[in-house]
Amino acid sequence: MQHTTSSFKTSDGLKIHTESWLPDGEPKAVVLIVHGYAEHIGRYAHVAERLVERGYAVYGLDHRGHGSSEGLRAHFDSFHQPVNDLKQYYDQIKAQHPARKTFLWAHSMGSLIGLTFALRYQDELAGMVVTGTAVDGDATQPAAMIAIGKVLSKIVPKLALIPALPASALSHDPAVVAAYDSDPLNYRGAFRIGIGSLLIAAGQNLRARARELRIPVIFMHGSDDPVVPKSGSEYMYMSASSSDKTLQIYPGLLHEVHNELEKDTVLTDALNWLDQH
After folding, report:
1. Which residues are CB-contacts of 169 (< 8 A; sequence separation ≥ 6)?
2. 3-state secondary structure of 1
3. Low-confidence stretches of the chain (pLDDT beneath 70)
4. Residues 20, 69, 85, 108: which is the catalytic one?
5. Minimal CA–CA distance to 10: which of 70, 95, 85, 97?
6. Residues 35, 75, 255, 258: which is the catalytic one?
7. So what's the pLDDT on residue 108?
8. What is the per-residue pLDDT across 26-66, written as a single tens digit (0 to 9) for each?
9. Which ranges in the chain belong to alpha helices (H)?
10. CA–CA distance, 238 with 178 (Å, rounded to integer)
11. Which of 170, 129, 144 shows the shortest CA–CA distance to 269?
12. Residue 221 is inside which H or E element, if any?
């Protein structure tokens, strides 16, 4: 396996950190991982390694404001920014593997970015693995708070106000929780007003447009996810027009199903789905 790091400049001049994990031979397909809020692509190394073992080329980037990429921590001025960054990186990857199918593996906030990307460019994708989708993020907040946040996001979008959830919401594995808390590349500050409003709006937009999704997709969610409810995955599964769609709810699992004690089962399910496609 060949693991490399690199970077590219966005259209507005930010340096974006990227990583790739490549098999020694020609890959059978490409998987582009889209990470979640307040984390970075390095946390998916174990996922990438499993994919490479099966013959996939794996790529990922740290979103602007995340991990080793430039930008104000955990902040987007617009939701178009991370989607456009992803397209810029996708085009680079596709140029390297023009004859290979490309899949997205998108988690949590990354599912919002990935699904928005897919609705724009789904003719270029072979399918998606979506974990812990956050399209129902507004279901966890009172309507009055969402309304106030929408107003404040126009006035003080960079204000960090909402306390971060404890890492114990991510996984039952104490090693994962400890590693998350001690990782300096994870953002552990309060949630900024602006990005909170952007993510809620992105989820609402995806719910409204869910029937436009027509590529093969598997939605995977922990039944006890305290970050975003499984209803988001259930809604997207029921509403998508895809003739080839799968919903997998894992009883008792939390938000990061790929980092749970049962991760081997979860990763095997995802790998088998990818192999079939």
Report:
1. 226, 227, 254, 255
2. coil
3. 138-156, 159
4. 108
5. 85
6. 255
7. 97
8. 999 999 999 999 999 999 999 999 999 999 999 999 999 99
9. 45-53, 80-96, 109-121, 143-155, 174-182, 193-209, 231-239, 263-276
10. 36
11. 129
12. strand 217-222
Nearest CA among 9, 52, 13 for reference residue 29: 52
Structure token pair of residue 253 = 């699992």
Domain count across the chain = 1
Strand partners, 149: none
- Distance in angstroms (rounded) separating the CA atoms of residues 98 and 49: 22
> For the domain that residue 92 is a member of, what is the CATH number?
3.40.50.1820
CA 269 – CA 220 distance, rounded (Å)? 9
pLDDT in tens, 220-229: 999 999 999 9
Q: How does DSSP classify residue 68? A: T
Q: Taking the complete model, does pTM exceed 0.90, yes or no?
A: yes
Residue 108 among the catalytic residues: yes
Is 91 in the active site? no
Catalytic residue among 225, 239, 242, 258: 225
Could you confirm whether 255 is annotated as catalytic?
Answer: yes
Whole-angstrom distance, CA of residue 140 vs CA of residue 87: 30
Q: Which domain holds residue 222?
A: 2-276
Beta strand 127-131 pairing with 217-222: parallel
Tell me 190's DSSP state: P
Distance CA 146, CA 6 (A): 38
User: What are phi and psi for residue 153, nearest 5 degrees?
Assistant: -65, -25
